[in-house]
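Retro notes
What went well: the complex prediction finally ran end to end.
Inputs used:
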Amino acid sequence: MEYKKINIITGHYGSGKTNICVNMALELAERGEQVTVVDLDIVNPYFRTADFEKLFSQHDVRLIAPMYANSNLDIPALNFDMTSIASSDGYIIIDVGGDDEGAKALGRYLPVFEKHDSQLLCVVNKYRYLTKEADEATELLADIERACGLRCAGIINNSNLGSDTDKTVIEHSFEYADEICRKTGLSLVATAGKAEFLENAPMPFPIKIFVRKIWEEFEQEQA
Amino acid sequence: MAEKTLMKGNEALAEAAIRAGCKCFFGYPITPQTEISAYLSKRMPKVGGVFLQAESEVAAINMVYGCAGSGIRCMTSSSSPGISLKTEGISYIAGADLPCVIINVQRGGPGLGGIQPSQADYWQVTHALGHGDFHALVFAPASVQEMVNTVTKAFDLADQFRMPAVILADGLLGQMMEPVQFEECEIKMSDASKKPWAACGHKNERKHNIINSLYLKPEQLEDTIKERFERYEKVKANHTEAVCDYCEDAEIVVVAYGSTARLAKSAVDAARKEGIKAGIVRPVTLWPFPVNELNEACRNAKKVLTVEMSMGQMVDDVKLALNCSKPVEFLGRTGGVIPKPAEILAKIKEMGGND
């Protein structure tokens, strides 16, 4: 994956943005880079980047999350100063809430994004209900761009069926990602998936699955 | 075989309702179930249905009351505090013998409580979903796929027995994503004109139907309630459901429903690997409670453990069902805290070690 100073990860609700963000952050951290992850999700009440506080601190990744994330106060308040975050050293990864509703939160930070070297990347998943067709995904991408006032710079194909994902599932999505790229004129920047499934994938981005169910975590520990 | 898609529990409930012939949805947003409203606001207009965001939960349930009276399949959804607001309307719907589906994606309580997952509305939904002598059908699915399958069943049985049906989920089930398949389902009884009681226009061909829950004579009200309870007996006799795993030789039987059953199942699997004869019963219907299924599963049990995301509510029904024939212990977390499989496993071991 090619990174800019500021990497804004957007996409359809449930396309797997959070898992992508966690993987990007850890990849950069492993390279010895300084990384800040910003949880800008104003849509999800739980199951979000802020869940990975412990993992991030183990890898010296700085996490900036809304003050009420994962609390019982359901207020989409963004209380951080993006200007000072952006002026700090290292890379910044921003996990945006799903769809155009989530992308709206980006608008107020436009001047910061324009000032720095930044890119908006869009995560797509062929297996999500309302973006199964390339046309639907393309339409949603336009909605996201309109909502945040930024142009998308590339597509991350994160097509997956949760725990049912395998090589075939991922390979069946290549044509879908191709079609989105053709229709939008954007380039594919990554095909994400477990390393063993990416043998034939264009722009492979091997990932680990961090967003897991509580029982899946327990079963893994037991094994 | 239908193609698999990845869906959030809330979205799956919403899509399943459309496929089950639900034509009208009336709701009011509340975390953690708002995706149901959000999804239906986009989809309902595309399938010729009605999505209406009411001014309050009370308004929404009364719209369901009116809509159900006309024989059209309709639904509302909310989370715990919102369901409390709806209970007056639900009682009227039950009193007028009308079918509808109500979804409760539970969060912490009492009061505003919190937005994290909970199962503290068990007593409310099974014992007191409003004033008066009545019951609602209560289903407790444990996966996104099962939520899909349950919606059709809930609409069908609600129509068949002319009573409200509740799908009792929780924030964990509503928010989590799993692959699902939508099989083509046969939609039974969704046609209002085939419901002889429906107030959908008599066209001068029959006497007009009246939707009502007020009876002027006590005897008349008593007869109506007795007739309703005869119907409940039929539901109890034919429509209980539970899923049992490893119960044939189980000495410790864990009882859990909904997402807690997923957590408990992992703990039971781990206990089995350690040589502990543990089993699990997952009630799928909470009303009627699967009394026979539970007794059958606990035949060889020395002890029973109920696990819930509450201070202990279903545990009462477990004790009643077993009629004190086995010692019943309880493990629960509440306030939005999810019990860890490791905690459940530790409790199973502790119980197994007391012999």
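What we learned: The mean pLDDT of chain B is 95.
What to try next: split runs per interface for comparison.
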